[in-house]
Specification:
Blueprint: H1 2-9, E1 12-17, E2 21-26, E3 30-36, E4 39-42, E5 50-54, H2 56-59, E6 69-72, E7 75-76, E8 79-80, H3 83-98, E9 107-112, H4 118-130, E10 135-140, H5 141-148, E11 159-164, E12 169-175, E13 178-185, H6 189-204, E14 206-207, H7 210-220, E15 231-238, E16 244-250, H8 251-275, H9 278-287, E17 289-292, H10 301-309, E18 313-315, H11 322-332
Parallel strand pairs: 1-9, 9-10, 11-17, 17-18
Antiparallel strand pairs: 1-2, 2-3, 4-5, 4-6, 7-8, 11-12, 12-13, 14-15, 15-16
Helix pairs in contact: 3-4, 5-11, 6-7, 6-8, 8-10
Length: 342
């Protein structure tokens, strides 16, 4: 009887705490939640802040809030920018995923960028503990992505993964359960959105918001010429007249706006390949590079990388879920993968 009560309150979770989206895997149930990493805070004219919305509901408020409400993204460039909001967000997502507010012996594995500092690691641990979690483990995102993509990370063979997220791009060569060579770049989805905003402002004198820029990037963005170029209607504010205006932009223009970010990612992949021992390089020639993360869905980014690096490049079967699937697999078989945890 006591064991049944104990098991009811004990919940094991895996979280991909991303800059753009947070995904939660519950042991035995799989991925149960995928929501934007956004928190809406009300100030009410005082210094005291109150969280009024989290996730999708808060994202709907981005760029549309009155003076007393702020919709913020507490994670920036893969690390915690606002500690209190991150803690509230983790607490909310855990409660929503488990459908209960009282938890006792909760075990949690969180994915983090490979280049994170010890201070930033401590902040992630403390945010999770502040949300009521008892045991907190960390795993590097490229390692989790490789597990989620089905790569043999424990074998003495080289596997290369490129995880293009919202705040960071992680490039890593993995062998024998460890990262042999890696690069973490603070250039990813968010930086691309900013590039689209700046390009449209300079070229068309129209100001658009973050959500519109993200939509444009995903609909017509590409890294390499498309077989058939696309167009999209964009609505924003005319910077000269100050009134709303619609314009049409092409995939050729958006590709131009993304050029610097894509070039940085290609540079990071090449730099990682240069650090890779020859024996593992031979494995990568045979096995190729696996792309995952939301940014891997940008049109023809795999084609560009294959041409630039001269290697086969594949997009993971479920790129958006590769990291959380990997963290979930580690959680479900924690003893077999314990050596991957930090």
């Amino acid at each position: 009887m006591w064991n049944k009560i104990k098991n009811f309150f004990q919940v094991d979770l895996a979280i991909d705490l991303g800059t753009a989206n947070t995904l939660v895997h519950v042991r035995g149930r799989g991925v149960v939640l995928c929501e934007p990493s956004v928190v809406a805070i009300s100030t009410n004219g005082s210094n005291q802040k109150k969280v009024i919305a989290v996730g999708q509901e808060a994202k709907e408020m981005l760029g549309k809030t009155p003076g007393n409400i702020q919709a913020i993204r507490p994670m920036r460039d893969g690390v915690i920018a606002d500690f209190t909001s991150t803690e509230a967000m983790i607490k909310f997502f855990i409660a929503k995923a488990t459908q209960r507010n009282m938890l006792t012996r909760t075990r949690l594995i969180i994915s983090i960028p490979a280049g994170i500092t010890s201070i930033e690691m401590k902040a992630v641990r403390e945010a999770a503990q502040g949300a009521g979690v008892r045991e907190v483990y960390l795993i590097e995102q490229p390692m989790a992505a490789a597990v989620g993509a089905g790569l043999p990370v424990q074998d003495p063979r080289g596997s290369m993964v490129v995880d293009i997220g919202g705040g960071t791009t992680d490039v890593a060569v993995i062998s024998l359960g460890g990262v042999v060579a890696s690069q973490t770049l603070r250039v990813a989805g968010d930086r691309m959105d900013e590039a689209v905003i700046n390009f449209i402002r300079k070229k068309h004198n129209v100001l658009i918001g973050e959500r519109t820029a993200e939509l444009i990037k995903m609909r017509v963005g590409s890294a390499f010429p498309l077989a058939e170029e696309l167009e999209i209607e964009v609505k924003g504010r005319d910077l000269i007249t100050g009134v709303p205006r619609s314009i049409v932009v092409s995939s050729v223009e958006i590709r131009e706006s993304l050029q610097d970010s894509i070039r940085s990612i290609v540079g990071a992949v090449k730099a990682t390949l240069e650090q890779t021992p020859p024996e593992l390089s031979a494995d990568i020639i045979d096995r190729g590079i696996v792309l995952c993360g939301g940014g891997s869905q940008i049109g023809n980014i795999d084609v560009l990388l294959a041409e630039e690096c001269g290697l086969p490049v594949f997009v993971a079967e479920n790129p958006m879920y590769a990291v959380v699937d990997g963290v979930g697999i580690v959680l479900e078989h924690i003893e077999a993968y314990r050596n991957l945890l930090l």
